[in-house]
Write a structure and sequence with these properties.
- The chain is of the alpha+beta class and 147 residues long.
- It folds into two domains: 96 residues, no CATH class; 48 residues.
- It has four helices and nine strands.
- The strands form two sheets. It has a five-stranded mixed beta sheet, with helices on one face. The protein has a four-stranded antiparallel beta sheet with strand order 5-6-7-9, sandwiched between helices.
- Strand 6 and strand 7 form a beta hairpin.
- Helix 3 runs antiparallel to helix 4.
- The chain is elongated and about 60 Å long.
- It starts with a strand and ends with a helix.
């Protein structure tokens, strides 16, 4: 499925590309923590950034995000955001760096890389395991705070 502001694949995608008017971001789904929202706003959390999507009838988009089928989201130009569409409509996208999550992952990675007794293969596996653990911890903390 495709329209001007999103492209949906028929299977699981490796990542999502988000095109803003002046900048493009690509996030791997492996860094995806969670998404929440409703018909007018969706918040997606990745390990280093938070993405907020505004619009109308976004419920179906949230389902597609849950399946990780979304491969492209585009911020509409100003004129498109005021047009009325009968179906799902994205009116805005904002992306902010999640400094505290990024700093935690970076600090743990630096600690692993600075340990001289570890082989390169062990360092790589430790970094992967650390990132997975940190993602799960942050997702748990974020969900617990909202309850």
């Amino acid at each position: 499925m495709s329209d001007n502001n999103r492209q949906i694949a028929h299977g699981h995608e490796a990542g999502i590309q988000i095109k803003l008017i002046k900048r493009t971001y690509v996030f791997p789904w492996s860094q995806f923590l969670f998404a929440e929202g409703g018909a007018d706003e969706i918040r997606m959390a990745f390990s280093t950034h938070d993405v907020v999507i505004s619009g109308r009838k976004l419920d179906t988009l949230l389902e597609e995000i849950a399946k990780q089928y979304v491969k492209l989201l585009k911020e509409p130009v100003r004129a498109e955001s005021f047009a009325a569409f009968p179906d799902l409509q994205i009116t805005g996208i904002s992306i902010k760096k999640a400094e505290w999550r990024a700093a935690a992952v970076h600090e743990l990675n630096e600690l692993i890389l600075e340990t001289p007794s570890l082989t390169l293969r062990v360092r790589f596996r430790l970094i992967q395991a650390t990132q997975t653990a940190v993602r799960r911890l942050f997702a748990f903390c974020s969900v617990s705070v909202r309850r």
